[in-house]
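Example with several molecule types.
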Amino acid sequence: MRFTRLTATIAAGAFALGLGMGAASAEDTLRIGVEGAYPPFSWTEADGTLKGFDIDIARALCEQMGRDCELVPQDWDGIIPALLAKKYDAIVASMSITEERKKRVNFTDKYYNTPAKFVAPADADFEATTEGLDGKVVGVQRGTIHQCYMEKAFPDVELALYATQEEVFLDLASGRIDAQISDSIQAKEGFLDKEEGEGFAFLGDDQFDLECHGEGAGIAVRKEDDDLRVAFNDAIKALRENGTYAEINDKYFEFDVYGAEPGS
Amino acid sequence: MAESDASGGMIETIRQFSAESSPIDFVIILEHGDLFLMGLVQTVALVGLALVIGGALSIPLSLIRAYRHPVLNPIVWVYTYTFRGTPLLLQLYLIYYGLGQFEAVRESFLWPIMRDAWWCTLFAFVLNTCAYTTEILRGAIDATPWGEVEAAKAAGMSPATRVRRIILPSAFRRALPQYSNEVIFMLHGSVVASTVTVQDILGVGWTLNGKYYLAYEGFIAAAVLYALLVWGISRLFRYLERRYLSHLRPRDGSSGGGKRGPKAPSPQPAT
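Resulting structure tokens for the full complex:
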């Protein structure tokens, strides 16, 4: 009796909270959820301004669609629940299009696709195989395609789960974890090419599993907002065609991160 | 989603919310019962060990504070002030991320231990709870009735015997109610372990939410577990207080108001 009442009270509280967050919603401004802790795709400057590929793409998409946009920084943990609670209307945060996520949200077409890779000390004496990683601790960001992949492809390897990718690199650098797996471009630009990444290197080849990794990073919207999804798709196509995408791409990367054209 | 007036349409809104988004998925919580059990063990082990070790260390420290040892007292004061004056989360971050930055720490013999998130967390918890317990005990020792000490002196007890047989036992009793709060605060504070990869109760909750992109299922399960633990802790302390503070309760045993009532003949020998 006591339990059920307690559980009900907590549940009611959680609902009220979720509804409260969703209540105020300005009609005209499009609000976009971004992470701000995933360089070079998204990071927060010391003065609080948001920078990165995702940020520039989000702004370009808004301009293309002729909408006023507001970027809302949100931790990766809870980035989908906050979309569902209408804290913002779309997520532009390097989120891969996966079946598991499609149960909760809808995705636009991909706006980029880069492979996942392990990173370990350059002088690591093990390989990126089940035997090689036996007894090692591998760091991943919680709730990502990389956690999904590790649990599926390396079920016996011990995982350390982090709230942000930056914390994963921090612990890799201090030697607390033996290796980490993440997006290869993000790992290169956000860690390996920086001072902290000295002495570290990629371990093994690209890691891929369709179920976990999906078809690339897309923009997530609520299921009922299909007009918005279509508008985003048109805008992505337009940016690809009018050269804006290439312009933004070249600011951050030496090659086209869009990957293969769909259907090719 | 329809606008709703906060409380009136509550049930209706919940129903609507459940229909449009998803209701609480109790199934997913139950399916991960083993994970939550592991989280529970992790939390109980961390908090339990921290309380035992921190509690043991706090006894000599509280005596140093209460007797105002000329050299050690200021040092212990700085320690307790630092750890009571800063948030536990900050202490854990400084120990976990801070210490790991130094080459010297990473090369020292301590690194195999400090490398592990679990030991870092235990270390932070011990330092934190020890600081609080030291001050709780110091307060209880300071409040020792002078007559008890006088009587012990008159009975010819040496200073060490007085501490062991009179001052500490009596201080422990007086500290019980406050200490039960410390235990509960420590349990609630222990959620910070989940921020440094320890899979405690909240850590499992985060994992569940992260894996299935849920908003609250993991948190609700965690909240229920914490509430259960607190219930157990308060039961334990209620029992301890009944047993060890019985001399402070009304004699007649009826609930309340008995303090001024007629006294029953004392069943106990005077202590």
